[in-house]
Amino acid sequence: MAARMQQGGRPGGSRFAQFKLVLLGESAVGKVSLVLRFVKDQFDDYRESTIGAAFLTQTIALDESTTVKFEIWDTAGQERYKSLAPMYYRNANCAVVVYDITQASSLDKAKAWVKELQRQANENIIIALAGNKLDLVSADPTKRAIPAEDAAQYAREAGLLFFETSAKTADNVRELFTAIARKLPLDQAGPRSIRSAGHRPGVDLRPESSGTQGASGCNC
Amino acid sequence: MANNTSQEGSPQLKPDTSEETPPPLPPRPENLTFLAGSGRPQSSAGSVKGTQRGSLRPSLLQSKATTALSLEGSGQYTHGETISGSSTPSRQPSLANIGYNYMRSASDVDDTASIRSAVPPSESGVGDVESLLGDVVTERDQTAFESVASVRQDPGLFEETLFGDAAELEKEFETELDEIDELKTDGSNQESVMKAWRSKLKHYLILSSAGKPIYSRHGDDHLITNYIGIIQTIISFYNSADDPLRSFTAGDARFAILSRGYLNLVAISRLHESFSELRAQLEALYMQILSTLTLPNMERMFSSRPSTDLRRPLQGTESLLSALADGFTRGSPSTLLSALECLKLRKAHRNAINNTLLKCRTPSLLYGLIVANGRLVSVVRPKKHSLHPGDLHLVFNMLFEAGGVKAGGGENWIPLCLPGFNNTGYLYMYVSFLSASRDGVEVEERRTADGKGEGEVAIIFISANKEGFFELRQMRNDLIEQMSKNGSLDHILESVSQGRSSCTDILPGTVLRHFLYKSRSNVQYCMSSYDPFFSTPFSRRRLLSIYGDLHAQLHSRPVRLKIHYTTSTSYVALAWSSPVFELYCVAPASTSRAALAQAATALVNWAKRSEERLFLIGGAVF
C-alpha cells in the first residue's frame, strides 16, 4: 500500500502526483457522503452504515499543469473495525478526520483519531478536520452542538486544516480536498519552475512546519 | 385443504386412508437404502415443549453441511437412477395413480366432488360447485390466486385459501416492511404506534440470555421492552426446568425460539410458515451475528460480562439483519431450499469463465466468485475447501439486498467471518461491482419485487490475508480485461438481461405456472420467472407459502416422502423428491392430476437435459 509519487515528466511540463488519503471518524458523521460528494458529486439522504472499508479514487486538477490523484480509503466508523484502522492509515499521505457539528461527542472521537494519527501514522501526514452536516445548522442554528470557533481553535493548536462542510449542499467539500492537495509536497514531484505561471503566488506547497496556516481554509 | 401423500419405501402402508383399500403404488426399491440413510429426524415442531433436548441444533440450514458447490466427495448420485428416458414412462403412471388414490381416500362416493373438498357438505352437489367456481377454474389467464378473491363471498371457502381472508392480509402485507414511527417522548402517539407494531405479520427479536434486547425488526427499545421481558420470562421458565422451549402457537401466530449459547432468537409469524422454516430463518440471523463477531469473540464478551449489550459491537449491521428478515418475510426460495440460484449459461461459456478465473488467480485468493444479480456465475476455490450455501447467502444478502456496500461506491474490503467455513476467525472480502452496461451491451433494467434494478455483476474475492486488497484488486483488473476480451462479460450480461425463463418458454403449452427445481448434489436451484402470474409481492409471498407447505410435507416426517400432491380451490401443487432433485410446482386448479404429472415429468427431463447450463457443477478448482 505504498504511496506512489509519479514524476511528471510529460512534455507539456505537466505534473501528476498520487496520494493516499484516509477518512476517519465516528460512525454516522457522514464520511461516505463526503467522499461520494467529492468523487461522484452525489448525495443520498438515507444511508446505511459502511461495512468494512471502501476504496475510491478521484483526480483533481490544481491548475492547468498539475493534477493530483487521490486514492481514498473510506473506513467504517464502528468500534469493531478500530483494530483495522492502522492498515488504512499506515502509509497514508493525508487524512480527513470527520465529526458531526450537531453531535458533541463526535468531536471527542475525532480528537482521539487525530492523536492516534499523530502518534502512529506517517510522520508528515497532512490532517484535515472536517465538521460535517453544516446544512442542518444552516437550516436550524439551534442544532449546532460544537461552535465553529472551538473546533478552529483546536485545529490550530493541533496543526490541522479545518473546514465545516456539508456533503448535502456540497459546501466546502471540494475546497477541503483542494486545500489538502495544495498542502501536499507536490514540489518533490517535479521542478518548481513549472509553477512559474504565477497563480496563487501565496500558496506554498511544501509541508508546513507550523500549523497556524491550517485554519486559513476555514470559511466559517 | 385436501391433499394426499405417498410414502416412499412403504407402499403397502397408507396411514391416511386406513379404512380404504390402498391402490397399489409402483415399488421403487432402488431408493430404499439411500433414503434410509438420509432421512432426517425432525423435531416435533408443533409441541409446546421441545422433546429433543439432546439435539438442540435443528437440522436445517447448517445441517446440510454442505460441500456446496463442490462436488468432490459430496453425495454424487448416479443419474441413471433418475429420470432417464426408460424410467419416465413408469413414473408418469405412478403420479397418475396418486391422483386416483387421492380421490378414493378423500371421498369414496363422489370422486369429482372430492376435488373441491372445501365446499361445505350442504353444497355437495357437483353442479353448485361448478357454477360457483366455473368461470374461475376455466379462466386460464387469471393468476392462480386471483381466483381466490372471486369466491370470497362464500365464507365456507375461506378456509380453503392458504391464509384465510386474503384481502385483509394483502393490505397488511403491503405495509409489512414499513418502518414504525418512533414513540414520542410525551407518549401521545403510543396507541397508534402500538397498533402499528401489533399489526405486523412478522417479528424477529433477538435477546441475550440475560434478557437484554439485541435486535428487533420492528419497533425501538421503548416499544419492545415489555415484550422482551415477557419472552425472557417464558424462555427462562422452561430453561430452568432444563426443557427448552422451542415453539408454540397462540391464535394465528406461530412462535419459534432458537437458543444458541448466550443468545435467544425469536420469530413470530402470522404468515403460516412452518416451525422448521422459522427456525431456519432464525438460524440464518444467528449466522449473520456470528459473521460480524465470530463465535469466540462473542463468547468472550458474554463470559466476561453476562450483561453485555451486544448492540454496540453489532452497530451498523442492523441493516444486514433486517435485509435477511425482510427477505424471509417476502419469501426466500434460497433459504427454503438451503441452496443457491445459478445464472443460466452455456457450458462452453461457463468453462471459459472458469478458466479465466483460474488463469488470473493470485496466491492470496481463497475463494473467488462472480455473481450476477444474486445469481452465481462461477466459483474458483481450492480443492480442499468448499463453500457453504448459508455463508454465501449471507454474502449475497450483504451485497445485493442490503444497500450499504453497493451504495458506497468504489471497491470494498470487508472483514467477515463465514461461520459455515470457520466460525472462529475472519476472512477478508474484496468486492467490486461492474457497471451494468459495457461494450455496447445494454442491460435491460428489470424491476424485481422490491423495486431494485437487476443487472449488477459483482466480483467477489475472499482471502485470509488481511493485507491482500491490492493484490486482489490487480486480479480483478486482469480478470475483467480477460473477460472483456474473450466475450465472457457479454455472455454474462446477456444472460442477466434475459432474466429467468417462464414455464411456457421452457415447455411450450405447459400447465405449470411456476416451479422450483433443486439439484441436490449441486446444492443449487433454478426457478421459472415470477412473471406473468406472480408479479405482485403478495402473490409471490403466497406462492412461497405453498412451496413452504410442500417442503414441510416432504421433509418433516419420519419417513421421507417421495411425492406430495395438494389441491385447493385456486391451485394444484406438486412436490416431488428424488435423490437427485426436489421439484415444487403449481398449476391452476382446473389442471388434472395426470396433466400436472406429465408437466412435472417433462420439466424434470428438461432440467436433466439442461443440467450443465442451469447449474454450476464443481466450478474452477485449484
From TrEMBL, chain A:
InterPro entries: P-loop_NTPase, Small_GTP-bd, Small_GTPase
Keywords: Cell membrane, GTP-binding, Lipoprotein, Membrane, Nucleotide-binding, Prenylation, Protein transport, Transport
GO annotation, biological process: protein transport; vesicle organization; vesicle-mediated transport
GO cellular component terms, semicolon-separated: endosome; plasma membrane
Polar residues: bias regions: 209-220
Pfam families the record matches: Ras
Compartment(s) of residence: Cell membrane
Keyword Cytoplasm applies: no
Keyword rRNA processing: no
Disordered: annotated span: 190-220
Matching SUPFAM superfamilies: P-loop containing nucleoside triphosphate hydrolases
Molecular function in Gene Ontology: GTP binding; GTPase activity
Top-level taxon of the source organism: Eukaryota
Membrane topology per record: Lipid-anchor
Family, as annotated: Belongs to the small GTPase superfamily. Rab family.
NCBIfam families the record matches: small_GTP
PANTHER family reported for this sequence: PTHR47978
Name of the protein in its database record: Ras family-domain-containing protein
Source organism of the structure: Lineolata rhizophorae
TrEMBL record, chain B:
Location (main, coarse): membrane
GO CC aspect terms: fungal-type vacuole membrane; Mon1-Ccz1 complex; multivesicular body membrane
Subcellular location: Endosome, Multivesicular body membrane; Prevacuolar compartment membrane; Vacuole membrane
Keywords assigned: Autophagy, Endosome, Membrane, Protein transport, Transport, Vacuole
Function noted in UniProt: In complex with CCZ1, is required for multiple vacuole delivery pathways including the cytoplasm to vacuole transport (Cvt), autophagy, pexophagy and endocytosis. The MON1-CCZ1 complex acts at the fusion of vesicles with the vacuole, through its regulation of the SNARE complex during the coordinated priming and docking stages of fusion, and particularly at the stage of tethering/docking. Required for multiple vacuole delivery pathways including the cytoplasm to vacuole transport (Cvt), autophagy, pexophagy and endocytosis.
Entries under PANTHER family matching the protein: SAND PROTEIN-RELATED, VACUOLAR FUSION PROTEIN MON1 HOMOLOG
Protein name: Vacuolar fusion protein MON1
Upper lineage: Eukaryota, Fungi, Dikarya, Ascomycota, Pezizomycotina
